[in-house]
Design goal:
With 337 residues, this protein is α/β, with parallel strands linked by helices. It has two domains: 4-111 and 155-246, Ribonuclease Z/Hydroxyacylglutathione hydrolase-like (Metallo-beta-lactamase, Chain A, 4-Layer Sandwich); 121-147 and 261-332, Arc Repressor Mutant, subunit A, CATH 1.10.10. Helix content is 40%, strand content 21%. A seven-stranded mixed β-sheet has the order 1-2-3-4-5-6-7. β4, α1 and β5 form a beta-alpha-beta unit. The chain is globular, with a radius of gyration of 21 Å. The N and C termini lie far apart (44 Å). The relative contact order is 0.11.
Length: 337
């Protein structure tokens, strides 16, 4: 995929820079040129391959589109959300004399106090996996894998914590859309809407339960989709992965329908008591490595949504009351199927 240029109604140029941030994993980083203002939306993972890829894409903008721009000239960096493939190279720009960095207030803590966040998130994940039914030896391996993938980032000082509705840089409007990540934002630049990982063209963004990370979860995600669907005057949506989206409302409707089908499937699976491991395995099959964590979280987000509405109940409540942290088994409430 090559660099692609998009132009807003008044002539703001936005360049989609596809960058391989992890092996086999491509992010769309955006270079926004607005008069004398130079802004990056997301910065990649911080791995050498990602950093070099971003440098090459900016060089491509110079060569193919005759834009006189370098990374050293970037004045503003906007982090769409605090997932490593989007913010990992923030330190390159946040150093003294560098760019002004903006991130939503709910994700600012992740960048400002990353080591603290990693410790707490690892503990929350451990409890989640124990209750899900993951065996002790597998829990230890998955927790180590979770920490290892994030060990190369060090905290950076972020001075610009943004909120929903803020206008930043040159009037760009921030839309807070929690669900996929607590501080996930979309950025409205005239008739261009940068949707980051909130709305993608082909896959549905990963969901994890709020029991692991507050301000995540399917409930908030579905609400956030409807907020974005109501924005008027957007000619194209520019996501953090995959292709641009011309029919944003239609794509949102497809995503909502996908989750409704998955919720129905979870209710069907829980016609008899199931642990979260059992639900995940039925939905996604046996997964290995980090994909096992993702599958458990995705299943957990849907189970949590149904449990909060009383459509699932705990089948082994006596054991849960008696034991310190047992495996929880869920079953559909009679009449919910």
């Amino acid at each position: 995929m090559d660099v692609t240029r998009f132009v807003s109604a008044s002539g703001i140029r936005a360049y989609l820079l596809p960058v391989e941030t992890f092996p086999g994993h491509v992010n769309n980083i955006y270079l926004i040129l607005d008069g004398d203002l130079i802004t990056l939306l997301d910065v990649g993972s911080g791995l050498e391959m990602s950093n070099e890829g971003l440098e090459r894409r900016v060089a491509e903008v110079r060569e193919r589109f005759r834009e006189e721009v370098t990374l050293e000239q970037v004045q503003h960096v906007i982090i769409s959300h605090a997932h490593m493939d989007h913010f990992g190279w923030t330190g390159r720009f946040a150093r003294p004399g560098g760019a002004e960095v903006y991130v939503h207030e709910l994700d600012a803590r992740v960048l400002n106090n990353f080591e603290e966040r990693l410790v707490l998130a690892s503990k929350d994940l451990r409890v989640f996996m124990e209750r899900a039914g993951v065996k002790p030896e597998a829990r230890a391996a998955l927790e180590e894998m979770y920490r290892f993938s994030k060990d190369f980032f060090k905290s950076v000082e972020i001075r610009h914590a943004v909120r929903d509705g803020d206008r930043i840089i040159n009037g760009y409007r921030v839309h807070h859309v929690p669900g996929h990540c607590p501080g996930q934002i979309c950025l409205e630049v005239e008739d261009l809407l940068f949707t980051a990982d909130h709305v993608l063209a082909r896959i549905t963004p990963h969901q994890s339960p709020a029991s692991i990370t507050p301000f995540c979860g399917l409930e908030l995600y579905l609400r956030s989709l409807q907020r974005i669907r109501r924005i008027e005057g957007i000619t194209v949506a520019l996501p953090g992965h995959e292709s641009p989206i011309e029919d944003l409302a239609g794509r949102i409707d497809d995503i909502v329908a996908h989750h409704r089908r998955r919720l129905d499937r979870v209710l069907d699976i829980c016609g008899e008591p199931r642990s979260l491991v059992g639900v995940s395995r039925t939905l996604f099959g046996d997964q290995a490595g980090y994909n096992r964590i993702l599958a458990l979280e995705e299943a957990g987000a849907h189970v949590e949504y149904l449990f909060e509405r009383g459509e699932l109940r705990i089948a082994n409540l006596d054991e849960v009351a008696r034991e310190p942290n047992p495996v929880i088994h869920y079953e559909a409430r009679r009449g919910a199927i």
